[in-house]
Amino acid sequence: MVRKIVTLIAISSGLLLAGCNTVRGVGEDIQSVPDCVEGKTC
Asked: Among 11, 12, 29, 40, which is disulfide-ready with 35 (CB 3.0 to 4.6 Å)?
Protein backbone atom coordinates (compact mmCIF):
# COMPACT_ATOMS: atom_id res chain seq x y z
CA MET A 1 0.00 0.00 0.00
CA VAL A 2 2.77 2.43 0.95
CA ARG A 3 4.67 1.54 -2.21
CA LYS A 4 1.65 2.45 -4.35
CA ILE A 5 1.30 5.81 -2.60
CA VAL A 6 5.00 6.61 -3.05
CA THR A 7 4.80 5.64 -6.73
CA LEU A 8 1.73 7.83 -7.21
CA ILE A 9 3.43 10.79 -5.55
CA ALA A 10 6.55 10.32 -7.70
CA ILE A 11 4.53 10.21 -10.92
CA SER A 12 2.44 13.21 -9.88
CA SER A 13 5.57 15.21 -9.05
CA GLY A 14 7.07 14.42 -12.44
CA LEU A 15 3.95 15.54 -14.26
CA LEU A 16 3.74 18.71 -12.19
CA LEU A 17 7.33 19.62 -12.99
CA ALA A 18 6.77 18.92 -16.70
CA GLY A 19 3.69 21.17 -16.62
CA CYS A 20 5.65 23.99 -15.01
CA ASN A 21 8.31 23.81 -17.71
CA THR A 22 5.62 23.98 -20.37
CA VAL A 23 3.97 27.03 -18.78
CA ARG A 24 7.36 28.72 -18.46
CA GLY A 25 8.04 28.08 -22.15
CA VAL A 26 4.68 29.57 -23.13
CA GLY A 27 5.49 32.66 -21.05
CA GLU A 28 8.78 33.10 -22.85
CA ASP A 29 7.05 32.75 -26.22
CA ILE A 30 4.49 35.38 -25.29
CA GLN A 31 7.24 37.78 -24.18
CA SER A 32 9.03 37.38 -27.51
CA VAL A 33 5.97 38.41 -29.59
CA PRO A 34 6.74 42.18 -29.46
CA ASP A 35 10.17 41.48 -30.94
CA CYS A 36 8.53 39.79 -33.95
CA VAL A 37 6.09 42.65 -34.38
CA GLU A 38 8.94 45.19 -34.41
CA GLY A 39 10.60 43.32 -37.28
CA LYS A 40 13.35 41.69 -35.27
CA THR A 41 14.24 38.03 -35.69
CA CYS A 42 11.62 35.73 -34.18
From this structure: 40
Spell out, as residue ranges, where the chain has pLDDT lower than 70: 17, 19-21, 35-42
Please, are residues 35 and 42 in contact by the beta-carbon 8 Å criterion? yes
Longest dimension (CA), the chain: 58
Exposure of 21 in the CB half-sphere (CA atoms within 13 A) = 6
The full 3-state SS of the chain, as one line of letters, equals CHHHHHHHHHHHHHHHHHHHHHHHHHHHHHHHHHHHHCCCCC
